[in-house]
Amino acid sequence: MKKKLKVLVLCDGNRPTKIDEDLSKEMKTEDWKTEANVMAALGELGHTAEQLAIFDDVDLVRQKMDSFAPNVLFNLVEQFKNNPGFDQNIVSLLEMQGVPFTGCGATGLTLCKHKGISKKILGHHGIATPNFVVIPRGQRIGRPRQLKFPILVKPVKEEASYGISQASFAQNEEQFRERIAFIHEKHNSDAIAEEYIEGRELYVSLMGNIRLNVFPIRELVFREVPPNEPKIATYKAKWDEEYRKRWGLENQFAENLDSALVAEIGQMCKDIYRLLTIDGYARIDLRLAPDNKIYFIEANPNPHLAADEDFAQSAGKAGLKYPQLIDAIIRLGMNMARG
Ligand SMILES: Nc1ncnc2c1ncn2[C@@H]1O[C@H](COP(=O)(O)OP(=O)(O)O)[C@@H](O)[C@H]1O
Ligand SMILES: [Mg+2]
């Protein structure tokens, strides 16, 4: 029998919180599904779990570490003061305090979040990425000379498809300028413009620190989107059930990939994971072009962990039941040498 642990589940508060904040209302909502799933799994595993939500006060973590003295911190933090740019800063703090935590370290989180830096590193090592330019706020929006249309315009550092809609798909200079300006002004964010890669949308889940497991590949299919329309996992495509139904969007296991290609994808994703210094667990987004060329789109360390999301689905298909997955993530966090 494995040792039972004291686990502190650290998550985002959406308002200022106290150390003993009552989160029972939130925990019943769809937004807190991951937290609820993880807490339930910890209970099933027989661990002693407590939860702390932080909004703008990191000192709560220190206080809770003192009073609860957990063996490990389960990190579900994605933002600080509603700003998703700061998840790596929270992790930096944990690294400095020498407390074991689950998921990815600060460097991996930082490299993956910046969609320009991650692609530069991977491109340098011969991994296919879309051609791209980063256009910071305050820079004149010129003609995208280095890129071929169609071009996809995104915030350079967002997650969960924030700022991505059908209007992100620019077919000419006017649409390109308009969308860049929109990202700068309305989103308050620097922009990245990438050549649009036509192809299948694949999600590859991996887990490990040194030795890596690659789980069965998921795919987002766009069943009812007409052939000539762009196929993009926009914000609505991810989160709006009605929209998903209308366009036949479904996340499923990728079918009809031959085994050599699956092996190639697996190796490429392991390389990406190591090059971007990811540890713990991650989901890597790829595009598979009609000529079977594989393009890196984005790496997501600490991907959504809800039981019905792609990561847990993939792990489940590999034989890892949800509580066992949560336990494996904890053991990896405790075994990771940091700092
Ligand atoms: N260069 C690209 N070519 C084709 N589709 C893209 C490209 N970049 C992004 N997409 C589409 O947009 C979605 C979201 O982009 P991504 O970079 O993963 O942002 P997020 O971090 O918000 O998930 C992708 O899952 C994919 O469907
Ligand atoms: Mg993505």
**Helix share bin:** 25-40%
Give the low-pLDDT segments. none
Percent of residues in β-strands: 15-25%
Number of helices: 12
Describe the structure in your own words.
The protein is α+β, with helices and mostly antiparallel strands and 339 residues long. The chain contains twelve helices and 13 strands. The protein has helices at residues 24-27, 33-45, 59-68, 87-97, 106-113, 115-124, 173-185, 235-239, 241-246, 259-275, 310-317, 322-335, and strands at residues 6-12, 48-54, 72-75, 132-135, 151-155, 169-170, 191-195, 200-208, 212-214, 218-222, 249-253, 280-288, 294-301. Strands 8, 9, 10, 11, 12 and 13 form a six-stranded antiparallel beta sheet that branches. It is globular and about 60 Å long. Adenosine-5'-diphosphate (ADP) binds next to strand 5, strand 12 and strand 13.
